[in-house]
Design a protein that fits this description.
Elements: E1 12-16, H1 24-43, E2 49-50, E3 53-60, E4 66-71, H2 76-85, E5 108-113, E6 117-122, H3 143-156, E7 166-170, E8 176-180, H4 210-217, H5 221-230, H6 237-255, H7 260-267, H8 289-311
Helix pairs in contact: 3-6, 3-7, 6-8
Family: Belongs to the PI3/PI4-kinase family. Type II PI4K subfamily.
Organism: Brassica campestris (Field mustard)
EC number: 2.7.1.67
Length: 312
Amino acid sequence: MASKFPGMENEILEVFPKLDEIPPGIAIKFEEMIRCFLQTKSKNPTLKQFRVYKHLREVYDDEGKLVCFFKTSRDAKKEAAVYILDHPLSGHRSGSSELIGFGGATPTVFIRTQDASGCLVSFVENDGVVGDHKPLVMINTLPQEIIKLSIFHLRFGNADCHDRNTVTKIDDQRVHRLTPVDHEECFTVTYAMRRLWWTVRKEAKEAYTDEVVGYVQGLDVDVDIAFLKRCGWEVPREVSVPYKIFTHFLKKGVEFKLTADHMAVLVQNIHKSTAFNLSNMLGDMTLEDEIFVQKSHEKIEARLRQYSERFL
């Protein structure tokens, strides 16, 4: 740590993920963000607030360019975990220096100093959030932009997927490129997702491509959790258990050829046949975690098979 941040090593108490446990390209990006944070903080200890967002503070480089935000949140480690688990199509994040993964999450690193704790979130140029460009059904974007969001939100069990938690950048062809933000409500222990804005899009009702199916089927929660531990986080059960449930639900949903819209209805627990709602597919929550997960996996597979036979 000292060699990476000369003269600032005493400031840093903790970084997650550990920089020596992640691919070099990502480590370099995080080092830049941390260095800029420490330098900006040395000049202005309180950091400048970003617009009306009291929880976001601006971090600049030596030339005055906005590099990232410092975000105070009790769930800051969850946000960093979501980023490093957003694997690119080319393979597991642990072996890839690609900065942007399949879901499009921006580089995010947790940092704790003597007087601050939160995450640094890389700034992305944007034209606001999708909620600024209503009606949502008319936004000109590519099918894969909607598909990646659906996989990203479902996989991480994001309890708050409203239209202001997706940033958009309009390219030269007037096409919206979408980036999910604000991941602190991922891994929800309520097993109830809300406000999945992309369900209004026709793409959510279309079959997943073979490429997407292959990506989903290649996900491995146990490998992911082991990776998080190597990176310095003893993953709490409040994260690991929901992550196992949501990932299994997604994998089985894709296996049984459910669309994003089908799964969105079930994870929001609003299907008229309530037995198919996710909250009713779970095992007895008083059981030990391992048994609860196993029983839930069995019920999820059985119910989704029944759902596919009945409704598809």
